[in-house]
Amino acid sequence: MTRATEADVLTARSEPGPVARFAGGKGHNLYRLTRAGLAVPPWAAVGTDVFAAFRSATGLGERIARAVAELSLDTADEVAARIAESFAATELDPTSVAAIEQAHRHLGDRPLAVRSSAGDEDSAQHSFAGQHASYLNVVGLAEVLEKVKLCWTSAYSARSLTYRLMHDLPTNPVDMAVVLQAMVPAEVSGVLFTANPLTGRTDEALISSVYGLGEGLVSGAADADTVTVDRASGTVKDTVVGQKTERMDVHPAGSGCVTADVDPAQRDRLSLSAGQLDTLRGAAARIEALFGGPQDVEWAFADGRLWVLQSRPITNIAPDPDAEIRLWDNSNIVESFGAVTAPLTFSFARHSYHRVYRDYCALLGVPRAQLDRMDSWLANMLGYFDGRVYYNVLNWYKVIRLLPAYRLNARILAAATGVREPSAELAAGTHPLECRWPAQEAIVRLRVAVRFGWAALTVHRLVERFLRDFHAVYARYDAVDYTELRPEQVYRHYLEVERALLSRWGGTAVLDHVICLSYGVLHLLTNRWLPDMPEWVRWQVVKVGEDDVESTQPARRLAEIARTVHADPDLGPVVRELPAEGLQRWLTEATGEPAAWLRRELDRYLDDFGYRNANELKLEEPDLRDDPVQLFGMLKDAVNENTARPSTTDGGESYLDDHLGGWRRAVYDRVRRRVRDALRERERVRFARTRAFGIARRMFRAIGEGLHRAGALADPTDVFFLRLEELRDAFAGTIAHRELRPLAGLRRRQRDKQRMRPAPPPRFTTRGSVYWGELRPDVPADPAGDGGTRLRGTPCSPGVVTGEARVVDNPREVGSKIVVTYRTDPGWVGVLPSAAALVIERGSPLSHVAIVARELGVPTVVQIPDLTTRVRTGMTLTVDGGQGTVEITEAAPDE
């Protein structure tokens, strides 16, 4: 079909295909309304292809492209002005004029509304409300030609371009049709929302109305009446009568509109009659059924008849108040998955959490039938928002509610992890079991309590058995050179490791709950016997001995190497003076026994701890084995700061010696030993987790290399932009499509945009449809400090230090400064010996880094809101790890 004849103009008699393709969003919706039998004023549309042909025939498209190439949020006004000048200087070509004349003839010589109709306008996702031009009461062909050209120009207006940038929509070329529609001399007009956009209630309609034309209402210039109507019964539930002092009508003798005063007697009356309200209610049902969802409808009454002027989906409707509410929080998990996280890492973590906690619930004696029902939420312990990983908090509280002493466990979990408890209203819905009878639930809970008690008593034996099995599997699969295998062979190895390890990991989840319960008991004893104990002492008394914490091994090993290097007359000066990259090159080429010794020691370090690094649980991030440069930076810090940290007496023990004795001290010590033992075992298990993720990283990198060689991926690292289930389907022959290259490329570009956008709030709720419903921040009421120079967080490791701040986002060459960061992970342990103090915006007192900081005596404060926005490198800070305060005592030198 050529678009040079009848098809140039789209009307209610056109075939559906061309209308859907060329009429734009507004035109297509008018077509559906008309064909469904609703009263729609006569209309015709000049198609998007006419606009495209105009740009091509006149050379305007090239000028637009050059201008849009310089487009950004900062330049939108300037770019739009240049494009508008180009439009103004370009005459309509004969083909465009002919198409517009044809549309005008179709409607006859009557006053018209000329409205823009972009291809992606009036959609369920993007309304473009008010972004493009519309003109009312346009009279005569010459004026219609002018207004159509202005509608085309508005496709590149500053506000339209900005809207497109903010919604990640194409900015050029823009498909733009133009709708010509007969004017309705409205007596009253307005907007009908077929669902209440303010409350989300789908059983209510919201109707706004004014006298005359509705232009003042939709532009926000007029004060309108607003009526809330029950959709089923027609009962008026609420009425707000606006002060309607003016009305807009068509000009009686020419183009455009005129404004007139409303009769004073009508200003305070409702502009709609009961019959008109009921007519609108009936139309709401028909229109919503036609489009399959809530609609925003513009309408007008003239001569007693309802005319539907246009309809589009409601894009900003509030969530249904009866819809499910979810609470999301990344206060703790940000330690493991900070910033934007790749799809493969998220899907791998989500799968692992599901398997581990399902197996844990099975260990506790939850029956198989219950487990199958619990899968609906056990599979969703994590959430994924703009590339960031969040806890699905209420699902975690369902796991906690399985166990004895729910209230105590919940309070201690919140204190230990930094994840605030949900409100009582939300927590009330966290019931993990679905039983027909109370007796059935009581039996399950009794079984869980007994099994949990036994697991808590035998947790050391459980961990020993797990680690024995783990190290056997680890030794076998860590020795494999996966780069020599085909990708499908590597994937089979991955499945073998998953089967061998994940099925055993569930039992270790008991450790977190043993810690919560035992620390909860300790907390109760402290409140009863030592009510004045400072907060930092509460954490200090459960400090595990430095030699007992496996997490401290990398730091201790690096400190030993640094002491030898510092004392060596050949190695010391080189390590101190060369940058990390240069030091790595020097060591590769250097000869002599000192250099050979250092190579051996660093190789041994990488063999033992090469998987422990910053972002070690993010599969897409290189570990120390992949990128040893970060190890050389850590070594430089350790050598430059090779002074022993002053030994400190154990303030926790001294406090207990002074304030508690006799049988109470014996009971207290017994309980805290339980906490210490559980913390020690947890660190051992988490070091195993680090190694498991390290093997997985090697496997997935090898799979990426293999898929790249096969031509399936453009780059080996594109594998991290696939989801685990997509890899599974690719190797099983069940994938929905084989085009992995564009999929990975799309997600890589999405990742780049996510890094540029502000992160979602650290804690928020969603209601109803998670990604398309309401996202509401859930912020604590109490301030974090005095709003000035003092910041307050959670005390973690005692000590007072004054020094220079170093704001960093990775543990490379931090020097002997006060390290300020948004979040940490276990990979930061290596820099602790050289840090003067550590202050962290996120995290918790029981995080890996916090535990090791206490062992090493590094003053530490965590959970400091707005820390990294208020502190800058070079500021002088005073950190009090015992009180949990950070004082800015001096501004940065350049301020």
Automatic annotation (TrEMBL):
GO MF, one term, reads:
kinase activity
- Stretches assigned to the PEP-utilising enzyme mobile domain: 817-884
Q: Which domain of life is it from?
A: Bacteria
State where composition is biased (Basic residues): 746-756
* Matches recorded under NCBIfam families: PRK06241.2-2 (NF004881)
**Region: Disordered, residue numbers:** 746-767
Q: What is this protein called?
A: Phosphoenolpyruvate synthase
List each copy of the Pyruvate phosphate dikinase AMP/ATP-binding domain by range.
Answer: 23-319
Which controlled-vocabulary keywords does the entry list?
Pyruvate
Q: Note whether Cell inner membrane occurs among the keywords.
A: no
> Lineage of the source organism?
Bacteria, Bacillati, Actinomycetota, Actinomycetes, Pseudonocardiales
